Amino acid sequence: MFHDTKVPAENIVGAEGDGGKIFYRMMIPERLTSAAGSLGGARAAIEVAARYTTKRKAFGQQIKNFQAVSFKIAEAPDRARRGPRPRVRDGQPRSTAVRSRPAGCAGWCRSPRSSRQRWRGTS
Fold first, then answer.
1. Number of folded domains in the chain?
2. Is residue 19 part of a domain?
3. Do the domain assignments include residue 63?
4. DSSP for 42-77?
5. CATH at residue 45
6. Does residue 97 belong to any structural domain of this protein?
């Protein structure tokens, strides 16, 4: 867009060709601001979820009293700070990685889908 554009010497900021360095220096605070906004949104969502667990009832008691729900709420702030889990296993993207199984495994290990079905309790 700005190929062969003439700029007077007194209007050049920094050295010639250093525009990229200036741009990347300016992006550091921008990235931090974006990250802070995301963490703030996550914190607000966790607070809403925690309040909801005291309002919602199941089987005659608040759902915050169920172990699975209380563990999820307790883990949420730490997971929000850490960010998403890596999507790689054994150097491959998680969607394509297949764990190897011993040759003597039962008939349920015919394909990668079979292992997921077994964990879910379906056939």
1. 1
2. yes
3. yes
4. HHHHHHHHHHHHHH-EETTEEGGGSHHHHHHHHHHH
5. 1.20.140.10
6. no
- Strands in the chain per DSSP E: 57-58, 61-62, 88-89, 92-93
pLDDT digits (tens, 9 = 90+) for 56-102: 999 999 999 999 999 998 888 888 888 766 666 666 665 554 555 55
How far is it, in rounded angstroms, from Cα 110 to Cα 77? Answer: 39
**Greatest alpha-carbon span in the chain:** 77
Give me the domain span that covers residue 31. Answer: 15-84
Tell me how far apart the alpha carbons of residues 91 and 98 are, in angstroms, rounded to a whole number. 11
Tokens of 39: 């963490």
| Residue 89 in domain | no
What does residue 105 show for φ and ψ, rounded to 5 degrees?
-70, 160
Q: Over the chain, what is the mean pLDDT? A: 76
pTM over 0.85: no
